[in-house]
Design a protein that fits this description.
Distance between the termini of chain A: 63 Å
Radius of gyration of chain A: 21 Å
CATH class of the largest domain in chain A: Mainly Alpha
Strand order of the largest sheet of chain B: 1-2
Largest interface: A-B, 27 and 29 residues
Order of helices and strands of chain A: HHHHHHH
Low-confidence stretches of chain B: none
Helix content of chain A: over 70%
Oligomer: heterodimer
Shape of chain A: extended
Number of domains of chain A: 2
Largest sheet of chain A: none
Number of helices of chain B: 13
CATH superfamily of the largest domain in chain A: NADH-ubiquinone/plastoquinone oxidoreductase chain 6, subunit NuoJ
Helix content of chain B: 55-70%
Structural class of chain A: mainly alpha
CATH architecture of the largest domain in chain A: Up-down Bundle
Number of strands of chain B: 6
Strand content of chain B: 5-15%
Order of helices and strands of chain B: EEHHHEEEEHHHHHHHHHH
Number of strands of chain A: 0
Structural class of chain B: mainly alpha
Radius of gyration of chain B: 21 Å
């Protein structure tokens, strides 16, 4: 096993472990912190896939902004440890759904085969042109309309949030 | 030296570890003596002497403080969330230090026939004949800056103390607001440099006396001032140090902390200051370019900015919370957006 595979295995193990901790921690803040850890592992995967821009955005947006807001809300509501309570009514249906999903995933994986088709952008192009440049070029030429529509969508969401939060403007 | 790991000779890894150690020790020493310098400078500005008793003119004061804090009793509040309480000082301290990984602090040096760039996260590519660094260096710094808020928020929450909680809430709101303005302020810099790599941004500022190669502080004066002020607010330096406003909140988020854990918050504050000054020097003040030896240039500039931070602390009173929020959202944010638009128009007009 070469160093990169070993590194991948370690990061993947941490990602899975912290993913499990997100849903098993009793304390909501600890769950949120585990989720931050998972985001970090995802950012590491992006770096290993020659996508440093995605890694930086992953940390800035998810770990730096969204999770801070979630922790903010948990703090404001002052949710403390839920001790002694056990929720078991969802276990049966949940496990049936999980098994079905697993079966489906394996079914599709086994049925399909590798085509060997390659896109135009590989590790070499990313190294020479730069990841930010590639994404920027694609976003402002081929995908300009979807990009602008997304920005209008976000603007509408912001105005909606302001109107909902403020009774009198 | 024929053995390679991932296609790089071993000496690169040795140089990398050496760079990490040197930079870490240097930043730690700077942090320790920044506390001394701050007390001395503010003392003299207020016509006092500052620390005088420990060593010559109090020079051993930081070491005495460190030893004292180290031997203090550690107290964990009974109702605190133990794990979060213990981990919060570390979360506050680490992002401040690892931002230094992408800051270029000197030119490329030759070592045993290999060229070693003086920047931790970079290598010299012999085939391309140029330095390869993280090509999203600026974003990396922004990402690390956005993680600094966790330490304070978690410290405030886990202490199970009303003052701490309020301090934590205040600081998280403040840091999120000013992070936005600081991030937008430097957008205009990489519009001009057409790159996010810090090597490229420093290389663009190599010639002080010609307009095309001068410091970005002259090309983008508004962005420079806005970035510096927003960074001061983001790291909770004095005109904006509301999270620890002692007249209102005892000691803010670190009320319940004692011993080394308190010292870690203190170190994080000063390490953040050093980081912010280093980033400002790299982005706006020409990095390591200048009349002296490259590394010396960089250190002199960073120390001057640290002095400016202390000067500001001795001069301005603290903002009120609503004034702070109004300043961030209604003054700085529109100004940075305006700066981006104007820069864009000027670039389009001249190209």
């Amino acid at each position: 096993m070469d160093i990169q595979t070993l590194f991948f295995a370690v990061v993947a193990a941490v990602a899975i472990l912290s993913g499990i901790l997100v849903i098993t921690c009793r304390n909501p803040i600890n769950s949120a912190l585990s989720l931050v850890m998972t985001f970090f592992c995802l950012a590491t995967f992006y770096v290993m896939l020659d996508a440093p821009f995605m890694a930086a955005i992953q940390v800035i947006v998810y770990a730096g902004a969204i999770m801070v807001l979630i922790i903010f809300v948990i703090m404001l509501l002052n949710v403390r440890v839920e001790s002694g309570k056990k929720y078991t009514h969802g276990v049966l249906i949940g496990s049936i759904m999980a098994v079905l999903l697993l079966f489906e995933a394996f079914y599709f994986l086994n049925r399909s085969s590798l085509t060997g088709a390659r896109g135009m952008i590989d590790a070499n192009v990313v190294q020479n042109v730069g990841h930010v440049e590639l994404i920027g070029r694609a976003m402002y030429t081929d995908f300009l309309l979807p990009f602008e529509i997304t920005s209008i969508l976000l603007l509408v969401a912001i105005i909606g949030a302001v109107i909902l939060a403020k009774k009198k403007i | 030296m024929d053995t390679t790991i991932l296609g790089l000779p071993l000496i690169y890894y040795a140089a990398m570890i050496l760079k990490v150690l040197v930079v870490f020790v240097f930043v730690l020493l700077t942090v320790a003596y920044a506390t001394y310098a701050e007390r001395k400078i503010i003392g003299h500005m207020q016509v006092r002497l500052g620390p005088m008793r420990t060593g010559w003119h109090g020079l051993l004061q930081p070491i005495a403080d460190g030893v004292k804090l180290f031997f203090k009793e550690e107290i964990v509040p009974a109702q605190a969330s133990k794990f979060t309480f213990l981990i919060a000082p570390l979360i506050a301290l680490i992002p401040a230090f690892i931002s230094f990984a992408v800051i270029p602090f000197g030119d490329t040096v030759e070592l045993f026939g290999y060229k070693i760039p003086l920047q931790i996260a970079s290598v010299y590519d012999t085939q391309a004949g140029r330095v390869l660094d993280l090509n999203v260096g600026v974003l990396y710094i922004l990402a690390m800056a956005s993680l600094g808020v966790y330490g304070i928020v978690l410290a405030g929450w886990s202490s199970n103390n009303k003052y701490s909680l309020l301090g934590g809430l205040r600081s998280s709101a403040q840091m999120i607001s000013y992070e936005l303005a600081a991030g937008l302020a430097i957008v205009s810099v990489f519009m001009l440099s057409e790159s996010l790599s810090l090597q490229k941004i420093v290389a663009d500022q190599s010639n002080f006396f010609s307009w095309s190669g001068t410091w970005y502080a002259f090309k983008q004066p508004l962005a420079f001032i806005l970035f510096f002020i927003c960074s001061l607010a983001e790291i909770n330096r004095t005109p904006f140090d509301l999270p620890e406003a002692e007249s209102e909140l005892v000691s803010g988020f670190c009320t319940e902390y004692s011993s080394m854990k308190y010292a870690m918050f203190f170190m994080a504050e000063y390490a953040n200051m050093v980081t912010v000054c280093a980033v400002t020097v790299t982005l706006f003040l020409g990095g390591w370019h200048g009349p002296l030896h490259p590394v010396l240039n960089f250190i002199v500039k960073v120390y001057f900015l640290i002095f400016v931070c202390m000067w500001i602390r001795a001069t301005y009173p603290r903002y009120r919370y609503d004034q702070l929020m109004r300043l961030g959202w209604k003054v700085f944010l529109p100004l940075t957006l305006l700066n981006i638009v104007v820069t864009g128009i000027v670039i389009a007009a001249f190209s």
